[in-house]
Amino acid sequence: MKKSILLFIISIFTLSISASTTDPIEKIMLMGKVIDNDTKQPLEYATIVIKSLDGKIITGGITDTKGEFSIQVVKGVYDISIEFISFKTKTFKRKEINGNTDLGTITLEVDAQTLNEVVVVAEKSTVEIRLDKKIYNVGKDMTVKGGTASDVLDNVPSVSVDVEGNVSLRGSENVRILINGKPSGLVGMSSTDALRQLPADAIEKVEVITSPSARYDAEGTAGILNIILRKGKANGFNGSVSASAGNPDNFGLSANLNYRTKKVNYFGSGGYNYRNAPGSSKSDVTNLFPTVNMPKFRNETTDMDRKNNNYNARFGTEYFLTDKTSITGTVLYRESNGENLSTNTSKEYDANKTLTRTKKRVESQESSDKTAEYALNFMHNFNKNDHKLTLDFQYENSTENRSSFINDRIIFPSVIENNPEQNSTDNERENFLIKGDYVLPIGEGAQFEFGFNTNLNKLTSDYLVEEYNTTTSQFENNTNFSNTLDFEQNVYAVYSQYGKKIKKFSYLLGLRMENTDRKINLLQTNENFDKNFTEFFPTVNLGLEFSDSESVTLGYNRRLGRAHHWFLNPFESRTSETDIRKGNVNLDPTYTNAFDLGYLKRWEKLTLNSSVYYQHVINNIEWIQKNETRNINGVDTDIILSTPINLSSQDRYGFEFTANYNPVKWWKITNSFNFFKSVTDGDFDGKNYDNENVSWFTRLESRISLPGGIDWQTSGMYRGPSESAYRKTKGMFGANLAFSKDILKEKATLALNVSDVFNTRKRESTSYTDKTIMENEFQWRKRQVMLNFTYRFNEKKKPQRPQREDNGGEEGMF
Questions:
Q1: Where residue 698 falls among pLDDT bands split at 50, 70, 90?
Q2: How many other CB atoms are found less than 10 A from the CB of residue 500?
Q3: Nearest CA to 767 among 553, 557, 623?
Q4: H/E run at residue 439
Q5: 3-class DSSP state for residue 150?
Q6: Which residues of 686-696 are buried (b: 16+ CB within 10 A; e: fewer)?
Q7: Distance (Å) of CA 61 to CA 10, 30, 80, 244
Q8: Biggest alpha carbon–alpha carbon distance for the chain
Q9: What is the pLDDT of residue 193?
Q10: Quick one: pLDDT at residue 469?
Q11: Does the N-terminal peptide bond of residue 413 adopt cis geometry, omega within 30 degrees of 0?
């Protein structure tokens, strides 16, 4: 606490000095670099305090991401101290400063007496602004206690998660999600399901990369979300355990453990979660041109009862071969088992709205997902600062199995039992990744970087539909739906980039080349669909600092979006008798040219981070819908067939900002806002799909420190209405509420949170085809109440290392 107050005084004093433009005294620079004596890694946010010989604070500062500092002082003799929580303070007594002075590399040693006060969980969420990304530290966000990665992402500015778990960045779902900078089994074959299984406590921070440099994969036209998992850094044994319980049924237990010595760092995390997530949906269909015996209206309601047991474990060892070389091995295992019961009731009416038929469809599904992932990282730091080589190897094997039994019957006007159906989906994926990155500093403030990436992905998807044959009293294969898909996609990439900082101006120029080799084999028809293409992806990132509190960035990048395997599978799959999806094996990638202009400004109590962006998209993939009349149980029925196509070109414009305001010491307010417009131009099958959509998204969060050491956090979000060529979606509002208190001498925290307080997180939309109008409502999860208890050992709770308030500012070039 004393160090935080000290840093605050230093910051205020430094600002007051900077604000004085009439100061005639000549100032000189005091420079240096602070590193960990054991690991030789730079210490970011170390505090430099400069005092007069009588003990009065003169000025000071903090180190950047490279551990470097540069402070203006006047000539004189000072006592200079360098401090960092859990490390021994180093002091330069009676240091005479007569000109620009470089203290060189300063090593700090771990203070064993303060190890019990090291903090792993940050006291507050902060954001760091870099030239090509924004880094959001998860911190003490009470609304995600006992939650998942989806809950964390839904609280990150620029990011939103819809009711089905689909993640969007600036309103676009074409976003690449990485774990620790790489594709991972923690994201899974279906990222929406996998992210709901990753506990929030395992996440340290999220990087939002809207203008990726050439170092990153070109995949993801909207940008990249990089989830960084926790890995303890403090010496000795420390960690935390967390237990949670909620209603509807939601029980979880997780742990994060770490043991570190001078040569080895062991880290691990794991958890178990059981949840019963009831949901519901309904649709009202109007048939504009019904034929004989075809209903004019159809109303469907679906109640979902989903029970899931989730397990995850991650263990790793970081071994320091030398002071400059380390090797890290990590093993990850994830398993999920579920039982889902879905009851669909369909009522059909004639033109006079007289009930003509009622059907009930009950689907019982069992699911099992397993992922094993093995990763190896090698890092070598050369003698020169930031001169390093990094190599990564990763292997993943994942399976997803679904089996369903469907009982379909008519219950009005008379009871008719239709033949039952059973189906199964078995997916197996293997992924091998090898990548390398080499960084070479060149001269003063410049560096060159070169790297390669090989990502080999192979997947087999087996979909089996069997219908009951009353004659043989056996289930028989329905070849109209059953299919097997072999999908292989290998991506080979090399990149190079060069960056330099010239006083207040920074630039980073890069070029990436990616070759994609895609092979699809349909086993039932023995058809092959292969594509091979090579593309170049230039990147430009520029930055200009007007002052320590004001800067502007400009970025350009070219990116692509490759179709997922479920977009490519040309066989039909059913979510209901009347809702059928069919992939398109001939889909081409989507390409985007994107521009981003950012502005950052900090005042005493307010920080504003804003951006204006533009994206031009070609080969944009859209789902189109068309009607077909099919005979279902002896009745002509209009079904809706959805298919993805490279429909159009699209232009997206947008403006967003995030504001952090601290009106008083005990109250913090954060507001994020994103306004965007998309203009789509495309025709298909003689139909025009031109469309203009204007929408917006905002999130407001308030955190208040109440008497008695209780924290109160309230957050609300609103997603504005949107419109595509065939669908209109209404706006959606949601609110979360949380309280927390530290107990047991600040070794533990008790938190109560309520998600979706008003039970309003429902997607409501209206879809149009040539023959039908369909009104839909969908709610994935109802209001959730959670109680969470977290206990920390060897982690006494106090403010983390000194930090800049809310927005850390541009720390170095990259």
A1: very high
A2: 17
A3: 623
A4: strand 421-441
A5: helix
A6: eeebebebebb
A7: 7, 10, 11, 40
A8: 102
A9: 65
A10: 86
A11: yes
